[in-house]
Design goal:
Helices cover 37% and strands 19% of the residues. By secondary structure, it is of the alpha/beta class. An eight-stranded mixed sheet has the order 5-4-3-2-1-6-8-7, sandwiched between helices. Strands 11-10-9-12-14-13 form a six-stranded mixed sheet, sandwiched between helices. The longest helix has 25 residues.
């Protein structure tokens, strides 16, 4: 059934990122791995709620907003496809123009060290990993199954956020727990945001004129969820997220690293179930937990301007958490050539970038204040005499997924 995909130099790829109640998507016309056109992107949100909404942004056309109840991901996928072929807002003639579909998958455990063509064995392994990413993997499965229903003859590829981190050595990914929990329950560090770390490290090395295969790079993916990764010669050495995306620095609603004994202590004091405690750690902590107001860094900056002391603690903690992780990874790598900031906060908060780098002054890191303040695209924010190059590189996870999808489907011949 894949004959029509072979021996082509152009491939239209639909990239899907399913959340528990949302579908983000991009449609890309891939000329090759480096040359492509973004035909459309959009978001389906509030799936399963009465007030569902599709926001579809076609290139060169007006934005389409369609509000209606969206019962499930199958209905959501149908809305996406209908928008793509809509006579007024569409960007392709019909569904047959879509030659492959690529999905972002948060958790692939140690089953996958790269992207994979979807088959039932792959689906079973993604399902096993639901235990490690209960908020994400079930939604990804719904998205894949929905697309199989709507486009049954189109090959699908999955790209895992954990795959890039599979090059870590056992001393980096093992926890100091009884070995049996690793053997029985696969308890170990997996990391997350790997697709982003992979993209910005490779693009950043190229942008900075550094040989990726002879490099020491630290990537800081700072958003509502955040992680820092140490990369030697293009391969992950260590990363801050762990068994789940909870570990590491303070985040929007996640607590990051805490003393593990705090968990049973609070559970006993508050008479909480494991599920209730999990909800507190993942959804009620972080920026939101300390500030009591919001999980958004933009709100924290506004509150700081208004004199809010808790918001100030939040942003100072974020700054020092990042600086501690970067400093530790400098030691682990025995030096660093390039530090990269990316993702929502990393790309848009110049003050945070400056303050983190000020903590690295002992390394000879020097920031170009004007470049840093005006960085809205790929930008070198360090001065020419800085001992370490520092850059802001916007992430593009969808491009990585599209590239992998195109390569795997073309290799089906």
């Amino acid at each position: 059934m894949f004959n029509r995909y072979f021996n082509r130099h152009i491939m239209i790829v639909l990239v899907i990122n399913c959340g528990s109640s949302s579908i983000k998507y991009q449609l890309l016309d891939m000329k090759n791995a480096d040359v492509y056109d973004l035909l459309a992107k959009g978001l389906v949100e509030k799936i399963g709620l009465p007030e569902g909404c599709l926001t579809h942004k076609p290139a060169g056309k007006q934005v389409l907003v369609r509000e209606q109840p969206i019962a499930d991901h199958k209905v959501g996928m149908k809305l996406v496809l209908d928008a793509l072929v809509d006579p007024e807002y569409g960007v392709i003639r019909n569904f047959d123009d879509i030659e492959a579909v690529g999905h972002r998958i948060v958790q692939g455990a140690d089953f996958f060290s790269g992207s994979a063509l979807v088959d039932e064995d792959v689906m079973k392994k993604i399902e096993i990993c639901c235990d490690f990413a209960p908020l994400h993997n079930p939604a990804h499965i719904l998205g894949i199954r929905a697309m199989q229903n709507v486009l049954p003859d189109v090959p699908q590829v999955v790209t895992f956020d954990t795959a890039f981190h599979q090059t870590m050595e056992p001393y980096a990914y093992m926890y100091a727990l009884p070995w049996e929990y690793y053997e029985k329950y696969r308890v170990r560090r997996y990391g997350a945001h790997g697709t982003s770390h992979q993209y910005v490290s490779r693009r950043g090395a190229e942008f900075a004129g550094i040989d990726l295969n002879n490099s020491k790079i630290i990537t800081c993916h700072i958003g509502n969820g955040s992680s820092v990764t140490a990369i030697r010669n293009g391969k992950c050495v260590d990363t801050s997220m762990g068994f789940t995306p909870l570990e590491g620095m303070i985040m929007g609603t996640r607590c990051g690293i805490i003393d593990a004994n705090i968990v049973p202590y609070i559970m006993k004091k508050e008479n909480l179930t494991p599920d209730q405690m999990t909800q507190i750690l993942n959804k009620k902590s972080g920026f939101l937990g300390i500030s009591g107001v919001s999980s958004d860094a933009r709100d924290m900056m506004r509150l700081i301007d208004e004199g809010d002391k808790k918001a100030k603690i939040v942003m100072k903690k974020l700054t020092f958490d990042i600086a501690k992780l970067v400093g530790g990874y400098i030691a682990e790598l025995n030096g660093v050539d390039l530090i990269i900031f990316t993702a929502g906060i990393g790309e848009n908060n110049a003050k945070l970038r400056r303050r983190v780098c000020e903590q690295l002054g002992y390394m000879g890191v020097r920031i170009d204040s004007e470049a840093n303040e005006n960085a809205h695209d790929e930008t070198m924010i360090s001065t020419p005499d800085s001992s370490v190059k520092v850059a802001m590189i916007p992430t593009n996870e969808e491009l990585v997924i599209a590239r992998d999808t195109m390569e795997i489907v073309q290799n089906l011949i």
